[in-house]
Amino acid sequence: MDKFTKLTGVAAPLPIINVDTDMIIPKQFLKTIKRTGLGKNLFDEMRFTKDGQEVPGFVLNKPAYRKATILVAGANFGCGSSREHAPWALLDFGIRCVIAPSFADIFYNNCFKNGILPIKLPQAEVDKLLDDAGRGANAVVSIDLEKQEITGPDGGCIRFEIDPFRKFCLLNGLDDIGLTLQKQEKITSFESRRSLEQPWL
Question: What is the CATH number of domain 6-174?
Fold first, then answer.
């Protein structure tokens, strides 16, 4: 998993509440178990018409936001089914951070396991960032995870809270497997000892 330390990029505004995981990545794209290739189908039913044409008004289809790395969204983002494909699709598109007043619990947890930083902020501060994000290509926002600070295009700074353990994992690029492999030496030692003591296993 890629480390998350600092991120500077265009923030795309998506002021919609209750964006569920089927909106993020519709069910017909869940056949794969690969984490890559889903970005082209992110928000598929919102980005494209039934015949595959882009919807010009959708934010990620606008030239200024095609390479957005930050998404500023409405409350209860990621609700619905617990599909891990949702953060996979966001990450594959290039989104490394989602800022919202609240998140569905399972989606929130899945973000950390996939190198995405979900930031919870009070609605008033989200509204400020939505206003900043509305500046198009000038909507450049910087996020410093170590300092837990968001800097807007006008230089204003917003602090955010994050669980220390999750912060540690993101800063060091550690998913569940990575955390386990930090104990590789002890695991190898245990397996060698067990093979000697219990050779029938």
Answer: 3.20.19.10
